[in-house]
Specification:
Elements lengths: L2 H19 L7 H33 L17 H11 L4 H4 L12 H8 L6 E4 L5 E3 L3 H15 L17 H12 L7 E2 L2 E2 L4 H20 L10 H11 L4 E5 L6 H13 L7 H5 L2 E5 L4 H14 L3 E2 L18 E6 L30 H10 L1 E12 L10 H10 L3 E6 L12 E7 L15 E6 L5 E2 L5 E2 L2 H16 L10 E5 H6 L7 H4 L11 H32 L5
Parallel strand pairs: 5-6, 5-8, 6-7, 8-9, 10-12
Antiparallel strand pairs: 1-2, 3-4, 9-11, 10-11, 12-15, 13-14
Length: about 575
């Protein structure tokens, strides 16, 4: 993204957030996100629909041997008949579905929403199927009606759109928010006189992601249940490189890993000389989420991005009601809640997923690891964020499970993260990278059997504000490049204080503890060029002078205290 496009998006973020933030006077962050994100979704599907209409209209009127949509003017008796034919043809549902564009009924289109919202309450808007007058009850009702119409017309969206009528919002506040979205150009945007090469899907997808992050900040601890910081998600995706295959997240939140995987393909497909659209056909996403509202946020997030998804039939607990029991994924990525205590059920006692040992009933960390391994394909790779305690704890069978994972040669890489990366917790975290095949038989990687890469990234990143740390693009690239060089056996070297490739025997000597700091050592000190003998003499002289000064100060303090009648 160039500087002009980034400036446009930053200005847009600020403008829309200020408008949305006015709702905080009536609602807390946990609720008003549903209002704002619902409007963003309506705006997106309507804009995408209009974009498709423009393309179709051009094709209807353009005579070309390859154009199967052309409507010849001479087939109609008058201009009025021709214009009506064009209008009717634009309302053919199949034209939109064939282009993977959601069908938006007239009552749900953004222009309709904006026009009807400004009318007096009680105005007759239309007649329903039974011939009954539909009167404007409130702007919230109007929005909910639009969401109803979209769900009825698009089976993929059924049951995933949050209604806003329950929040009893002031009409004028909602009208102001609708007008702000209406005044913003999401199609063919212009910034400072420059036409930008951004589509409505790109813009509204960015806005949706930005708002999720802002809502997570506003909600604090609760916000972390559906939002993983973008830089951490990007780091994991850049390291795993999910070009093709099945991607699975059993604790998906709002679907950040899927969005980042989609962006990864867009950004890197050209480097591999792939067609982006064709390459995306080779990716399929599977997710699960227990929270019903978060499950809906994720589905809306995918719909806005045009990502096909399978999130199961409903929101459900991944341990107790696995929605994808037969799935074996090529890539598994997750940020499950850390150290969950109340996850266990006796129905899990002899579960087939506990291949490496029964996880403790009071902590789900090793339950998540084994659940993900159970769903990992024989040549797949996985990554999950966990609390640092998972790398060293020996309580309640955790040490034995970790030992088994290492002995089975499943652990590929451990990354220690800096603190203050998360909006919802200050618990230090790490990333586990595991795979069932380190043999390098695919020819893309070298044989890594019995070796584990340790990366200590605790000193990377910068403070973006008083409480939150973030990674730079260079930080992400440094870690990802190190991992890939080690995997390929090309250009990798241990760097004291940062990374080390360690064999099984060394890990065993450390009682199967996986904390990177134990293995990478301390960073090398830069040689200042001063010979050791000269430096030692200089430092000894400096130390003696400091001792002398300390003695002088001690004597002066005793003398002063004696003058006040005190003795040490």
């Amino acid at each position: 993204m160039n500087t002009t496009e980034q400036e446009f998006l930053n200005d847009l973020d600020s403008k829309l957030w200020k408008a949305a933030d006015k709702l905080r006077a009536n609602l807390d962050a946990a609720n008003y996100k549903h209002v704002v994100l619902g409007l963003i979704f309506l705006k997106y599907v309507s804009d995408a629909f209009e974009e498709r209409q423009e393309v179709l209209l051009e094709q209807f009127q353009h005579d070309d041997d390859d154009n199967i949509y052309f409507l010849p003017r001479e087939d109609y008796d008058s201009d009025a008949d021709y214009q009506q034919a064009l209008t009717d043809e634009l309302e053919v549902l199949d034209y939109y579905r064939e282009a993977n564009v959601f069908w938006v009924p007239k009552a749900a289109r953004w222009k309709t929403l904006q026009e009807k919202a400004a009318l007096p309450i009680g105005t007759v808007l239309w007649q329903d199927a039974a011939g009954t007058d539909a009167k404007l009850r409130s702007v919230s009702w109007l929005v909910d009606n639009a969401l109803d119409e979209i769900e009825k017309s698009n089976a993929k969206l059924k049951g995933i759109l949050n209604r806003i009528g329950q929040y009893q919002l002031d009409n004028d506040t909602l009208i102001g928010l609708i007008n702000t979205f209406s005044d913003t150009s999401f199609t063919k945007p212009v910034h400072q006189g420059t036409q930008l090469d951004l589509h409505s899907k790109d813009i509204l997808g960015h806005v949706y992601e930005y708002f999720l992050g802002q809502f997570a900040l506003a909600e604090g601890k609760q916000g972390g249940q559906y939002y993983t910081p973008k830089s951490i998600v990007t780091l994991i995706v850049e390291m795993l490189e999910p070009y093709a295959g099945r991607v699975y997240d059993p604790a998906m939140g709002s679907g950040g890993f899927f969005v980042s995987s989609d962006k990864f393909i867009e950004e890197h497909a050209s480097e591999q000389h792939y067609n982006v659209a064709e390459q995306k056909k080779h990716i399929s996403v599977y997710g699960q989420e227990s929270n019903p509202t978060t499950w809906k946020l994720a589905a809306m997030n995918m719909a806005i991005r045009g990502i096909d998804f399978n999130f199961g039939k409903k929101n459900a607990d991944s341990f107790l009601d696995d929605q994808h029991p037969d799935l074996r994924a090529d890539f598994v990525m997750a940020n499950p809640p850390f150290n969950i205590k109340d996850w266990w059920s006796e129905s899990l006692a002899d579960d087939a997923r506990w291949k490496y040992g029964s996880p403790p009933k009071g902590n789900a960390n090793f339950g998540w690891i084994q659940h993900m391994l159970h769903h990992l394909a024989p040549t797949g790779s996985m990554a999950l964020l966990l609390a640092n305690g998972s790398m060293s704890s020996n309580t309640n069978n955790e040490g034995k499970i970790r030992k088994r994972l290492i002995e089975e040669d499943l652990v590929e890489c451990m990354v220690a993260l800096p603190g203050q990366l998360f909006t919802n917790t200050q618990i230090p975290a790490c990333i586990w990278f595991l795979t069932k095949d380190k043999s390098g038989k695919d020819g893309k990687k070298h044989d890594r059997r019995d070796d584990i890469l340790f990366i200590d990234a605790r000193n990377l990143g910068y403070m973006k504000d008083r409480v939150l740390r973030d990674f730079t693009t260079d930080d992400i690239r440094k870690v990802a490049d190190t991992f890939h060089a080690w995997q390929k056996g090309e250009g990798y070297e241990d760097v004291p204080g940062f990374c080390a490739s360690v064999d099984f025997q060394d890990v065993a000597k450390h009682d199967f503890v996986l904390t990177p700091g134990r293995y990478v050592g301390a960073p090398d000190q830069e040689d200042d060029g001063e010979p050791f003998a000269e430096k030692m003499a200089r430092l000894s002289t400096q130390l003696k002078a400091q001792f002398d000064e300390s003695g002088r100060l001690e004597a002066a303090i005793k003398s002063n205290l004696g003058g006040l009648g005190y003795e040490l």
